[in-house]
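#onboarding

Welcome to the new folks! Below is a worked example of what a typical request in this channel looks like: someone posts a single protein sequence, and someone else replies with the predicted structure as tokens. Don't worry about understanding the tokens yet, we'll cover that in week two.

Example request:
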Amino acid sequence: MMDFQTIASKFQVKGTFIFGEPFGCGHINDTYVLYFKREFEHPLRYIVQRINHEIFKDVPALMKNIDAVTSFLDKKVTEAGGDPAREVLKIVKTTDDQLFYHDEDGSYYRAYVFVDDAVCLQRIEQPEHFYQSAKAFGRFQKRLSDFPAETLTETIPDFHNTRARYEAFLAAVDADLAGRRASVQKEIDFVKARAQDTGVLLDLLASGQIPLRVTHNDTKLNNVLLDIATGNGICVIDLDTVMPGLAHYDFGDSIRFGASSAAEDETDLSKVFMRLDLFELFCKGFLEECGKNLTQTEIDFLPFGAKLMTFECGMRFLTDYLNGDTYFKIHRPDHNLDRCRTQFTLVLDMEKKYDEMMSIVKRCQADCR
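Example response:
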């Protein structure tokens, strides 16, 4: 067990430590909530995380990214008359004024001020939740639209470099480390048939047709805090993967995860399709917030971003399956293959509905003018 009191003593917290306990459902970092009492005032809570430095190998650069982005957002929210205490994550520095604490055992810790009267949901309980997440991520894009994205470090290099992901897939096919290649030839052919898709957005970036932006890169519903009283999305959290990227990454991953009719690992593929109603709802919220900050080319390629992020994710699941399930945690035999097939089924459905997706984007853009 973590020595909560010792860890708490390393940060500039207010009040007297009471107790700490595990918090949330994260799969990468270890997250805890710590409680502190104050005389004549309500107790305070802080989030403390032990950062997984096996995944995030350059913790100083990661924390420098988060500090730069949250400081920038704080100014934007303040200028707009908002409440940065609720709308932006606030890093609590260590007693020696550092962004993280590195203990003698090699572990890295950081602390944030706990945002009260807010909740993050693990699944969409009603469509309004998805709409609010769209507005929150769109607002995130808008507020960071003039941030110099090139100054951020890639916390996970080539995270959404789909061309590099494709090369890793081909290497996994050739190596066939787990002896599974023959059993997934259909899925291998599916990926190879779409090889040209992997470079489309990267080529647009290289030619200057779309800009480099600050992207969150993990735009699931549970990375948005919703205000308990109003239900509005107020704060984007989990900033570990904030780095240079394309707006299509954030938009596309939201659609991949949130507009699917089924779970990511559904085995009955007849249940898997992309819900156009949820696609439209997310488009509406996203473009209401950042539509005027995106270029026309960026907007035109939003449906492609949804397809590409879904394709990339499926390809990563297939790559890991071929390699013997060494990256993604599995909970049953062929779990990664099931995940892969679900993503590819979504891709096929998006291809069938692509013209409708384009029409929805144009309609949402027109409504936001």
